[in-house]
Amino acid sequence: MAEKVKEKKKHKGLKVLGVIILIIALIVGIGFGVIYYLTKPVDDTSDKAINVGGMLTSQNIDYKEASADGLENDLIVKIMQVSWKFCDKSDKKRMATQTPPENVVKVKDIPYIDDGNPYHKFDVFYPEGKIAKEGLPVIIDIHGGGWMYATKDLNEYYCMELAKKGYCVFSISYRLVPDVTVNEQIKDCTEALAFIRANMKDYPANKKTVMLTGDSAGGQLALYSTILNNNPDAREIFGTVDTKLNIKCLLLTSPVTYAKSGGWFSIYTKKMWGKDYKTKSTYNYMDLNEIMELANDMPPTYFITSSGDTLAHDQTVNAYNYFVEKGYECEIEDFTDLRDGKKLPHVFSVLDPFDEYGQKAIDNALDYYQKSLLK
């Protein structure tokens, strides 16, 4: 009798366990279904199209590169696509509350590669009015967005604010992961820089005075582009062109430059280099200390971060300390200010260039740029 009772309890326990497993499987299945539904690509002509990597299709444009094969189905990439989709909504809402500077000329959507790809374009901004014959000092901006999100339009107000202060500002887009990998993005950036350099005469720009800048993932792309600009051997490893730019200054706002050793965030950043990143020629150059081994020289470099930057504060400070250790000319501004009782967030000066903290960060960076031109 006791054996039968024991057997019944065991059978009942197995049934309960089976039900629990089934419920968990259903929840996981529904979760996967929701993620794949939210990340379903749409046609790039649709009013629902957004600039998140892997979420556009086209009748005329091949967005996908073979080097990124498999990334589009990676779970972490899928989850981040959902995250960036919500970021797109919040960024549009934020920009709708901001008033862009007046008296700034805008020249939009100039292709630097004439292949019809909307990510292969750049904008130019400069102040209205009479401009000296030698042209304005140049700033070239590379936007952030975790390598997976946004275009040059995300940084439009930031670039307009820079232009208002007396600069000719170029702002570039590049293709996004998981359609491509970081290496293709670096190629896009260097192609854009080379095209801008070759066509700078068409704008009120002084090609002898160039500052390259980028924020977050764009900071990483700006750093790599600068290093490759000065080293033909490095260009061969990455397969990039010679931009022929004379970069006088580098401005890095909360750059994410440690893909392999960036703590918990590396679970994500390593994948940006491709599913097979370990077998690629770029594997040994995915962290700042590795790529800097290829640096023949570096221009004066200015770092901006903030104590509320939970994403890249430590990486920015580590990058600055590395530059100091290697003897490169550099400065850092690490903001500890509070805005409405809260610490300043990641890339605050780019997202809100108009308030007192954004203005202070921008003005100090431009002062550093001007000083670098005197050397």
From TrEMBL:
Q: Which residues cross the membrane?
A: 16-38
Recorded superkingdom = Bacteria
Q: Which InterPro entries match?
A: AB_hydrolase_fold (IPR029058), BD-FAE-like_dom (IPR049492), GDXG_lipolytic_enzyme (IPR050300)
User: What keywords would UniProt list here?
Assistant: Hydrolase, Membrane, Transmembrane, Transmembrane helix
Any idea which GO molecular function terms this record carries? hydrolase activity
The BD-FAE-like domain extends over 123-233
Keyword Transferase present in the record's keywords: the answer is no
The name under which this protein is listed is Acetyl esterase/lipase
- UniProt source species: Eubacterium coprostanoligenes
